[in-house]
Write a structure and sequence with these properties.
alpha/beta; 14% strand
Amino acid sequence: MRTPLLAANWKMYKTVAEAEAFVLALLDLAEGVEVGGVEVVIAPPFTALSAVAAGVVDTGIGVAGQDLHAEAEGAFTGAISAGMLVEAGATHVIIGHSERRRLFGDTDDAVNRKTKAALAAGLIPIVCVGETLEERDGGEMPAVLTRQLRGGLDGLSAEQVGGLVVAYEPVWAIGTGRTASTAQAGEAHAHIRSTLGDAFGADAADSCRILYGGSVKPGNVRELVAEADVDGALVGGASLDPESFHQIVAGGRGAGL
């Protein structure tokens, strides 16, 4: 059985003090949100990684970096290495988010190199894939997801793929208030799992967790994660408020996660 995962991606929000306050509030609301077979990960900005990691010690909650550089060190101003994330307390790292692809030029090859660097450092990659509105309207969703998966995971072993996380984020549903229907989400997730199976084998595909990320809210998470191939959610804006995120975790668990 795949352990479901609810991940909070804070993007460029929250100071260290705000992050610490969030963690305290969430723990007070949830009294151990990891209980019940649901895994929780928080991805704060780099400046708050250590503070969040310290705040969730012994709770079972994971901490993710929002990106990393593929190299271990070097003259890369503003970049963060996998080793730096680990030292700060990270257990996971988001790779290839649509905003990184669209705004910062991350390619499938860059995603591949970053994923390998994360795995080498012992981090669990959360590898993001997803199509734009134009690509979906053009019937290109399957081809786009296949290309991103094959490019981003090229050269990995079946065991490595089985242990990482893939996040499907329809670009047209991120920060727009639009959400993929359950049928759309189910179709995309099923295609992702089928593609993983074709490339890495059935065992890897069955083990790999696939999250939905696209305007997830307390009001829609239960229906979304009820889909057979949806193993949780990568939550953006709705994860910035501890009450909202707690409701999403509770909704996911209530849906049978």
